[in-house]
Amino acid sequence: MAKQRVGVYPGTFDPVTNGHMDIIQRATRLVDRLVVAVARNAGKEPMFSADERVEMVRHVVESLALNNTEIKVRVFDTLLIDFAHEMGAALIIRGLRAVSDFEYEFQMAAMNAKIDPRIETAFLMASDRNQFISSRFVKEIGQYGGNITHFVSQRVADHLAQRFADRKRRDT
Fold first, then answer.
1. Catalytic residue among 26, 72, 74, 97
2. In the chain, at which end, N or C, are there fewer CB atoms within 10 A of the end residue's CB?
């Protein structure tokens, strides 16, 4: 039996966007098992808790054609390399939207390679229709009542609308 190719796709996913879904879908062509690693990342002050983000990612993954790839969604709050070891991964998958993403991602990949050169990093370019989508912009558009259904699933849009309504009630 051939060794399973395991990859980790890390991110904050606050919230998960169609751009993230595109990278997940395309990553299934590269690995037999993909672990979508939701960073607890309290330093970024996420809008949604780690558990909420995991639930949203799990829901959107259900709608994807997975190319016979097993997908797991897990929270992590350790070094990415340590998490990759824990998951048995030999590949870290990162999405790039624009040239501006590259410098940061390149530095992170170099640091990870220095820590463990056996784990490769693969960069997937965002598709044309998704390269402008970011969680930050989605939240900003949604906060001001803009239509975000072009950028996230309906369920994620509903979660965002509820969160904004809760905040508005709390602030008044």
1. 97
2. N
Answer yes or no: 97 catalytic: yes
- Residue given tokens 């940061």 in the structure block: 104
How many domains does the chain fold into?
Answer: 1
**Closest of 94, 114, 113 to residue 104, by C-alpha:** 94
Whether 139 sits among the annotated catalytic residues: the reply is: no
CATH number at residue 25: 3.40.50.620
Which domain range does residue 34 map to?
A: 6-171
Q: Give the chain's end-to-end CA distance (angstroms, integer).
A: 61
pLDDT tens digit sequence for 52-71: 999 999 999 987 767 788 99
pLDDT tens-digit series, residues 94-148: 999 877 778 889 999 999 999 999 999 999 998 888 888 899 999 999 999 999 9
